[in-house]
Amino acid sequence: MVHVRVMIIFDKQDMSIKKGGLFRPPYFPLSGQISVDSLEHILSNATYGADPIVGKILEGYTRLDPSVGITNCRVILVSAYGTQVLLHPSSPFVLIWLFLPLSIIRGLPVKYNADRKPGGVNLLLVTGGAGYIGSHVVLGLLDQGREVLVIDNLSRGHRELAGKAVFEEADIRDLSQTGKIFRKYPIDGVLHFAALSLVEDSMSDPHSYFRNNIGGTMNIITSMLESDIDRIVFSSSAAVYGEPRALPVKEEAPKIPTNPYGETKLFIESMLRRSFEAYGTRSVSLRYFNAAGADPLCRTGEDHSPETHLIPIALDVVMGRKEELKIFGNDYPTHDGTCVRDYVHVADLADAHIRALEGMEKGTLACEAFNLGNGKGFSVLEIVSAVRSVTGIGFPLRFAPRRAGDPAVLVASSDRAERELSWKRRYKDMDEIIETAWKWHQKRFRPRRRY
Ligand code: UFG
Ligand 1 centre and the CA of 228: distance in Å? Predict the structure, then answer.
């Protein structure tokens, strides 16, 4: 017997409760399994309108009081083949119900977006897709044969890094600009990277972080709601945890960010959770530790201005683009006195984003957060020695005072992502990670001396 899974997501918390007290505002979608026969039975008995259908589904699948009346909810059917159909009971597309069982019985994969604008299939919006991590995800999606639209204000990103994706220069701080993009393109899902991301910078200019990160994300969510787009992968950060109390850091660890950057990421995660609870907007927040390396085919890589990250700065010194590497602090309670971080390859990060998206498409993920790291810590001095060994070039370094806000050790537990996203890292070896960064660095930045 073929089964479909039914997920009922409440759009708003203003559902009416006519009788009984079974429903409180739900915080998770209800789901259950039904057979195609019962689905057909329900369909043939349903009067097409909002409450009767939903009421019958609830009655049939979740054994709740049938007299409970629900308004403003959406129903997602997920077939055994992973096909999803999203229905809004009050939408004119409700008749698509009639076709679903047939398709399942025939075993045909159905691609249908009931409440999408016509003409668009699987168009994904990547905000900040001309930046470091975003551009790797764009490549991953394009490599999968997906259609990708990038928006970026190019304040930090580089147009050419967005590659062959459709590109629109737009600023997410401006709701009229995001609204225009969402009206123009039949977007199916969002991968959201556009943000400011420098810890120190966020201390001296917090307002810019609130405006870009929180304000920008509010505009994205507003536009998603207006266009009925219900899935987003969000670029979060290890910065949500602040100074870890236990290592490796797990997802449930206390979240006490020590800087405005981390605070904005944490607040956005909370916005996404509330949007899910209230409107059914699915989201996966990915908390990266230290992204490193570059596309193995050298199509994109790291190019920040100013550059603040350890590996590209070390490579800059190797290439003579900087005089020396300053090591911030050698009196930390670590084996060599320098900070320990968890460096994870950016292509592995990109892979996790695609898995997160697929999880939402298949209906296995609704509102989640995952750590993404390599599971192993490297000290600053160990990174220096790996850079020297990969490039074969020695370079000057100097010990400098600690950088404000740097925790001594940050290492992730990525067990959850491995388990629930079936995420497997291809790059575990530090030399291999640095080799990809080095290849990119040589291609991107013209050598000036020493090298
Ligand atoms: N470091 C140096 N010299 C440099 C640059 C960095 O010694 O010139 C050290 C830092 O003090 C730190 C380590 O190298 O100990 C790594 O620093 P990065 O700047 O490369 O990365 P962070 O660990 O500071 O930042 C990362 C992410 C942020 C995130 C933060 C969470 O890039 O987005 O982790 O703590 F917010």
Answer: 38
Q: Of 34-38, 227-231, 262-266, 361-365, which gets the smallest average pLDDT?
A: 34-38
CA of 319 to the centre of ligand 1 (A): 20
Q: Is the CB of 339 under 6 A from ligand 1?
A: yes
The residue-averaged pLDDT of 434-444 equals 97
Q: Residue 309 C-alpha to ligand 1 middle, in angstroms? A: 6
User: Which of 57, 52, 89, 86 has its CA nearest to residue 69?
Assistant: 52
261 is catalytic: yes
SS3 assignment for 29-74: CEEEEEEHHHHHHHHHHCCCCHHHHHHHHHHHHHCCCCCCCCCCEE
State yes or no: pLDDT of 11 exceeds 70: no
Shortest-distance atom of ligand 1 to CA 314: 8
Mean pLDDT of 340-351: 98
259 CA: nearest ligand 1 atom: 36
* Options 132, 241, 261, 288, the catalytic residue: 261
* pLDDT single digits (tens) 347-389: 999 999 999 999 999 999 999 999 999 999 999 999 999 999 9
Domains of the chain: 3-106 (no CATH), 123-444 (3.40.50.720)
**Closest ligand 1 atom, CA of 383?**
14
Q: How many whole angstroms from 295 Cα to the centroid of ligand 1?
A: 21
Structure-token pair, residue 319: 């290439």
Cβ–ligand 1 contact at 403 (below 6 Å): yes
The best mutation among 196, 310, 387 to test binding of ligand 1, ranked by most ligand atoms within 8 Å of the C-beta, falls on 310
Q: How confident is the model at residue 258 (pLDDT cuts 50, 70, 90)?
A: very high
Residue 110: predicted pLDDT: 28
Range with the poorest average pLDDT among 30-39, 68-77, 196-205, 286-295 = 68-77
